[in-house]
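queue> pop job 88
queue> type: inverse folding (structure -> sequence)
queue> payload:
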């Protein structure tokens, strides 16, 4: 029999900045109101909280100001019991974020990432539009920015904020507690950038090698046929194909106007349905490049980093972002909708009415 920790009591200490992160992680346990966050009455019962231990630990970890605390009890479980019911081996009143780390769930995107790693190496030859392999840099950002919160509560308009949040806004930023998610987003973005730089360097050095081999062939008078030339050229990596197949038109016609399809978020795309058309939104926040979340109940995209909000059509209406989300080129090829991420359309430049920025339904 193995021992596991289950949460028997959860509470919120002073200092909540009402950022919604906890309710997103554990909606059965936390309720965020206009100016505070409370534990739902049902969650005061230990038999209710125990099976929700993982969600509560996640909420504690997501909390940017570490005000979610909990107590745990050790229980014996069969060795093959599902891990989801166990909480971190947290000591009573230990800092929640610290306690959360051992029990953190594996990121949902891991299997996709592993699949992407096993994908065959692309060659320099052009190929058909991809069926939608996850974009590694989008994956890194998605893993880092999975819910609301972060500085969102701090960066909202002062009028919208409760008094304690306004105190935070007035404070010297250096005196604020670290925002773990914001740091993770920045770190992931840097890693993704470094990865793409390395990738480019590989491409350049491989290309130089190819040029060298070709010069050698010409210099020594070898007549190189197409097959032999291909043999001499090393396989080279290239940037991911920007064209993504996102399925048949039927499924988008069936969507209700105002609907959002998140199936291709790992590839950096939200498919949206408007009254008479469909379009492909770029999921990158136009403020500083985080990835917003689609909140179906609120009917909006909300960025976890600084609180920018966008309507379902991508138009911004709150937070610091200066402009709407961008849209990608979209077309139908052989009955399949294809999104081309290499061409973007910006609302503020009047480009959303240009052919290619939408498909009429
Ligand atoms: Fe700042 Fe999205 S990156 S609000």
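queue> result:
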């Amino acid at each position: 029999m193995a021992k596991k920790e289950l949460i028997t009591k959860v509470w919120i200490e002073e200092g909540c900045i009402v950022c919604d992160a906890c309710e997103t992680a554990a909606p059965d346990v936390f309720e965020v109101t206009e100016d505070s966050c409370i534990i739902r009455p049902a969650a005061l019962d230990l038999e209710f909280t125990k099976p929700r231990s993982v969600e509560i630990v996640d909420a504690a970890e997501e909390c940017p100001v570490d005000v979610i605390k909990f107590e745990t009890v050790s229980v014996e479980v069969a060795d093959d019991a599902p891990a989801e019911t166990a909480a971190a081996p947290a000591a009573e009143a230990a800092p929640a974020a610290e306690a959360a780390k051992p029990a953190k769930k594996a990121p949902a995107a891991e299997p996709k990432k592993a699949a992407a790693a096993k994908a065959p190496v692309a060659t320099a030859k052009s190929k058909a539009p991809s069926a939608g392999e996850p974009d590694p840099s989008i994956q890194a950002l998605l893993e880092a920015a999975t819910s609301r919160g972060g500085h969102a509560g701090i960066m909202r308009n002062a009028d919208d904020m409760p008094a304690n949040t306004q105190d935070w806004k007035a404070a010297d930023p250096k005196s604020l507690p670290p925002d773990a998610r914001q740091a993770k987003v920045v770190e992931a973005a840097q890693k993704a950038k470094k990865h793409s730089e390395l990738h480019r360097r590989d491409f350049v050095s491989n290309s130089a090698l190819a040029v060298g081999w070709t010069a050698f062939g010409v210099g020594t008078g070898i007549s190189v046929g197409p097959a032999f030339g291909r043999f001499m050229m090393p396989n080279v990596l290239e940037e991911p194909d920007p064209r993504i197949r996102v399925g048949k038109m039927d499924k988008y016609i069936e969507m209700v106007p105002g609907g959002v399809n998140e199936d291709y978020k790992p590839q950096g795309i939200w498919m949206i349905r408007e009254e008479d058309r469909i379009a492909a939104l770029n999921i990158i926040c136009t403020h500083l490049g985080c990835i917003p979340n689609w909140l179906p109940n609120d009917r909006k995209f909300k960025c976890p980093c600084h609180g920018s909000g966008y309507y379902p059509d991508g138009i911004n209406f709150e937070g610091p972002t200066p402009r709407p989300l961008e849209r990608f080129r979209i077309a139908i090829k052989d009955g399949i909708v294809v999104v081309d991420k290499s061409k973007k359309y910006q609302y503020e430049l009047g480009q959303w009415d240009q052919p290619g920025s939408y498909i009429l339904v």
